[in-house]
Design brief:
This protein is of the alpha+beta class. It has ten helices and 19 strands. Helix content is 20%, strand content 30%. The strands form four sheets. Strands 10-11-12-9-3-13 form a six-stranded mixed beta sheet. Strand 18 and strand 19 form a beta hairpin.
């Protein structure tokens, strides 16, 4: 689940890195480009730490650090604690008397029933019910929300928000109370992840982190800084995502990166999230995919499945009632890892789907993948075949997450 993020303005051009050096699971985000890359506030911090910087989602981001490989970093997160820079993500505040109604129009989530300082994964939908982006929405109060969206969708999301905000404020609801949007430009966002994350962070604060269960957030004093801390993350492990004002980002990063914390890049982030069964926008989600097809029906509030008036509701409600034509599934593949684009076949050699993400799992020692198959082939234990390098490999439909999550639920 992707949680909490920040942005910076365009800066000087950074030399791109060959796609040959990039994990194939993330290749789509690493498309070579001559466009000047943005930088997070920690760019110099990464370079000084020996980071290998690569273009990702319009930013120059760390792939790995020094001679520590992706698999070693992956295992460190699963067994200890690591720190990710996710400051390329977009952090936004929405405020106003009708903010709840506005965000319930843009998404299918039940935000009115969400308690204060609680978060939920949600989706922004287009008129056809397709996913514009996946997002984390944190409710501070009925008139105040903190929303995080993906860096690679910035140029789609922000105009969408602006257009819908103008439409909302010009209508009857807006007259009851207009909604304002504040993009937190240049704010930092750090993800402290792993089974030792809580003990490490607890050593830096007087706040009792046991009160902060998965999906909850609070403003926490950390060594003189008062920071928004949300418990959650994108790895399946216990952890925190910490939003930081621009002037404090480097100092906080230094504070959070001492032994046993290991700086961790995008390579390990991708394998960790896939083991946790989490989607990567652009690979596993896009505007032609609905939340029902993506196995994200749980983000749709119970009350909204019947009477919700959110954008794209007609398609979503129809699929909830009749079932979608395809479904997102997990697979364990024999022999060789299946990568994005690999075709999935049924027992009669008919193509039934396509792989959207795939890796050799460092934790399980198996080849795992995520993809979409025709409805009816999605059941646990269904045997299929995947075309890997022009050779059909046996695969089995497997429930996700592949690795049991270790969230702190109290």
């Amino acid at each position: 689940m992707a949680i909490l993020r920040g942005i910076s303005a365009l800066q000087r051009c950074v030399r791109t890195t060959s796609a040959r050096n990039i994990p194939k699971g993330l290749a789509r985000g690493y498309a070579a480009t001559s466009t000047p890359l943005r930088k997070t506030g920690l760019y110099d911090f990464h370079v000084s730490a020996g980071a290998k910087m690569v273009p990702f989602a319009g930013y120059s981001m760390p792939l790995s650090y020094g001679d520590v490989g992706q698999v070693a970093s992956h295992h460190h997160i699963r067994n200890s604690v690591g720190l990710f820079d996710v400051g390329h993500m977009v952090q936004i505040n929405f405020r106003g008397a009708t903010a709840t109604d506005f965000l319930e129009w843009l998404t299918p989530s039940s935000l009115s029933s969400l308690s204060s300082y609680s978060s939920t994964l949600s989706v922004l939908l287009n008129e056809q019910g397709g996913i514009i982006d996946d997002t984390i929405i944190t409710k501070h109060a009925s008139d105040a929300y903190y929303v995080v969206t993906n860096a690679g969708r910035r140029d789609r999301d922000l105009p969408h928000f602006k257009e819908k905000l103008e439409e909302w404020n010009a209508g009857e609801k807006g007259k009851e109370g207009p909604v304002e949007m504040e993009v937190l430009e240049d704010w930092g966002l750090l993800a402290l992840q792993g089974p030792e994350a809580a003990s490490y962070l607890q050593s830096l604060t007087s706040y009792d982190l046991k009160q902060l269960t998965f999906g909850k957030s609070a403003f926490v004093p950390i060594e003189g800084f008062n920071l928004h801390v949300a418990r959650g993350g994108y790895t399946g492990e216990d952890g925190f995502e910490i939003s930081i004002p621009p002037s404090q980002t480097v100092e906080v990063a230094k504070l959070l990166s001492k032994n046993p914390v290991q700086l961790t890049g995008l390579g390990a982030r991708d394998s960790l999230r896939l083991e946790a069964g989490m989607c990567l926008y652009g690979n596993d989600l896009d505007e032609t995919t609905t939340p029902v097809e993506a196995g994200l029906s749980w983000v749709i509030g119970k009350d909204r499945k019947e009477n919700g008036t959110f954008i794209g509701a007609e398609t979503v409600k129809k699929q909830l009632k009749e079932g979608p034509a395809r479904r997102r599934v997990g697979l364990v593949v024999e022999g060789a890892p299946a990568r994005q684009g690999a075709k999935i076949f049924g027992s009669d050699s008919e193509q039934i789907g396509t792989v959207t993400s795939g890796i050799p799992s460092p934790t399980l020692g198996k080849n795992i993948a995520m993809g979409y198959v025709k409805n009816g082939f999605h059941k646990k234990g269904t045997e299929v075949q995947v075309d890997v390098r022009n050779k059909l490999r046996k695969a089995v439909i497997t429930p996700m997450p592949f690795v049991k999550p270790n969230y702190w639920r109290g």
